[in-house]
Write a structure and sequence with these properties.
The protein has about 500 residues and is an alpha/beta fold. About 40% of the residues lie in helices and about 20% in strands. Helix 1 runs parallel beside helix 8 and helix 3 packs across helix 7. Bound molecules: nicotinamide-adenine-dinucleotide. Belongs to the aldehyde dehydrogenase family.
Amino acid sequence: MSSTKYKLPNLPFSEKLIYINGEWVEPAGQQSAKVENPDTASIISEVPECTVEDVDRAVQAAYAAFHDGPWVNEYSGAQRRDALLMLADEIEQHRAEIELIESINTGKPISDVRGELDDTIDLFRHFAGYADKVEGRHIAAQTNAKLQGYTTKVPVGVVGFINAFNYPICLLAWKVAPALAAGCTIVFKPGPQTPLTTQYFAHLLHKTGRFPPGVFNVVLGGITAGQALVDHDLTDKIGFTGSVATGKQVIRSTASSKNVRSASVELGGKSPGVVMPDVDLDKTAELVVSGCMSNAGMNCNALTRLWVHRSIYDEFLPRLKNAAEALVLGTPQDEQTQMGPLIDERQYKRVLEYIRIGREEDKAEILTGGKPVPERGGYWIQPTLFYNVDPKARIATEEIFGPVLSVLKPFDSLDEVIEIERKNEFGLAAGIFTHSHKDIAKFTRKLRSGTIWVNNYNGLYSYLPFGGFRNSGFGRELGYESFDGYLVPKAIIDDISA
Ligand code: NAD
């Protein structure tokens, strides 16, 4: 294990500092937090826990940059576009180091992290293309020929971002690339478990020399820093990704602070998948297992409620079991590894508790898995399949955020599935596996899900919006829709006779 491919590389910035107003500065307080490698539960770094004072300093910097700085007031859209393209190039040049840091800090297989970096670079290039295409409307005078009305779209202002731990660099790009393209300024807080690639990103952004001081600022920490950012009266919008409970708290705070502000909240999911009898069972079993177990099940859109048609139920279960047992668990930095550990001890205990609930309270049967993998030392749990699960069971309705799939009791008609899924608390994603156009049309029309995959699962793209219904939150990330979310229209009424 002495190879450099398993070790955190030397970082080109000091982890003890925070990036505010174009500089690496000392935090106001003395508190720090340890950063772990979840594969082995070993400490790999220590970073500051920001205080309310640090958050205030960062927001003040973003506010000054927005109202008085060149990014918003002097740069053309084309200049912002070129800055973002240069940033994408910088990330690309340093991607191997970022991938290694991300894999060690999240425990994610290195091959998956490569896909995350592909997406990150693509996102900056994609949204760079919008920076010089901000459009308004001209509305011909309707009631008074002397008046001319038109709209311009302006950046929403200072955006406070709060991220989840599960895709640290990619979810950063989901948020930061469209917001910068729209001309906003930013204070960004990563998940407390995974600060390192956000700091690396700040280092690269600084290195381009194209982003004036205060345009992008980082604060680190957990609840204190997050709450201070949400509560700060100089922020104009909050972009949040995380659990339903924290998301609701964020919405309450943005509504009750002195100045109301808009929020986009991307929350959890309990996404159903439906297997109809006309599909290739082996191929579909593999798609279902990767749809659930990718990122050790810590995906908001993970396929966790599986409906299998009664006529193929008994044939399909052994295929699912085989696909889950074939997953390669191992050192995340090894090429062949397909599944890694949970992110931390809290998540590990939570998943084990849900496995207990599944067995003891929900009385569901285990097809495979259900146990920790103690010999690895970190937060490992086997890919776990329950079957014959009641659709109302706790393991079938609550977000577990781990490698646990509930195969529900067999169904007879798609209408029955749609009727039950109408009551799903979440509405982030869903999948259907069939070649029947009639069933595909019915499912995609009726289901209130932000994303619906047909005969595939998990792929997300810079050009397609992503977000939820109901408790999965509101607002959209990715696609033109996310860029538009960082702009607000102004109506100008001009008396042309004056
Ligand atoms: P979490 O809610 O525990 O934390 C999310 C973030 O909120 C962290 O940065 C945390 O420090 C911060 N935070 C905590 N308390 C806060 C407060 N009072 N005010 C402001 N910020 C606060 O979630 P998590 O465990 O980091 O992430 C997992 C959750 O994220 C899952 O529910 C998952 O489904 C969801 N998620 C959703 C999407 C999506 O796009 N819909 C994507 C990824 C993850």
